[in-house]
Design brief:
It is a single chain. The chain has two domains: about 5-105, no CATH class; about 115-230, no CATH class. The model has no long low-confidence stretch (mean pLDDT about 80). By secondary structure, it is an all-alpha fold. About 50% of the residues lie in helices and about 5% in strands. Helix 1 (about 5-15) runs antiparallel to helix 5, helix 3 (about 30-45) runs antiparallel to helix 4 and helix 3 packs antiparallel against helix 6. The protein has a two-stranded antiparallel sheet with strand order 1-2. It is elongated.
């Protein structure tokens, strides 16, 4: 007898159960992408199992980059990669619509500060980084500038977000050093990294990191100064 996979229904149930932690781990943009993915799933005919599978993979792509490897929803979503040859049990479209309605109209209560900080740190740690030895090598063995964002890691040692450096093993961007000085990255590396990797209203909603080497340095510095001065 051929097995029937019910992982899609299980994923929906886990999303519902762990909604608070999911909302904490996702950025606003990722949360909106999840809503779009679920709308596609809700509009997919339940008897078109190939389309249901594609829609579930769309939901997976929304969530996997944001969730820790051991998150229950992440584990269930990862298992969706291996069900290509197993018949999928049809989803109840009403259940999808009910979950979508809850996500869209009744978002969870704001998490406490400690939870927000922990989630932000997890997200920032997932960004590509360099070891202390790799960074020192770029300075001929000398200590790197104090303005660089540096995360202390008890297991891996100090890590430096790679976006701070020019591609191809280059030195840090001058704009990075100046902005980090404004943001006091030596005292608050998490806050400085979050500034670089989050959307910025002063820069048209784009993350500053995406504008390195694209926009003039002074525009990035001005945006950082505006934050510090409360403009």
């Amino acid at each position: 007898m051929t097995a029937i996979d019910d992982n899609g229904t299980r994923v929906l149930g886990l999303i519902d159960k762990h909604l608070d932690s999911i909302r904490t781990d996702l950025t606003d943009e990722q949360y909106q992408q999840l809503l779009v993915g679920l709308r596609v799933l809700a509009d997919t005919p339940p008897d078109d199992l190939r389309a249901v599978r594609r829609a579930l993979q769309g939901v997976r792509h929304c969530l996997v980059p944001a969730l820790e490897f051991d998150h229950p929803v992440r584990r269930a979503l990862d298992s969706l990669r291996y069900i290509g040859t197993v018949p999928l049990r049809p989803l109840d479209p009403q259940r999808v619509r009910d979950l979508l309605a809850r996500l869209a109209a009744d978002p969870p209560s704001p998490p406490d500060t400690a939870t927000v900080i922990a989630a932000a740190e997890r997200r920032l740690r997932r960004a590509p980084s360099l070891s202390a030895a790799e960074v020192r090598a770029r300075y001929g063995g000398s200590a790197p500038p104090a303005q660089l964002i540096r995360f202390a890691d008890h297991e891996l040692g100090d890590r430096y977000p790679e976006f701070q450096f020019r591609p191809g093993g280059g030195a840090p961007y001058e704009a990075v050093l100046e902005v980090n000085r404004v943001l006091l990255a030596d005292a608050d590396p998490w806050g400085a990294a979050d500034w670089w990797l989050s959307g910025n209203a002063w820069l048209g909603g784009r993350a500053p990191v995406a504008l390195l080497g694209v926009r003039p340095d002074h525009e990035l510095v001005d945006a950082a100064v505006a934050l510090v001065e409360g403009d």
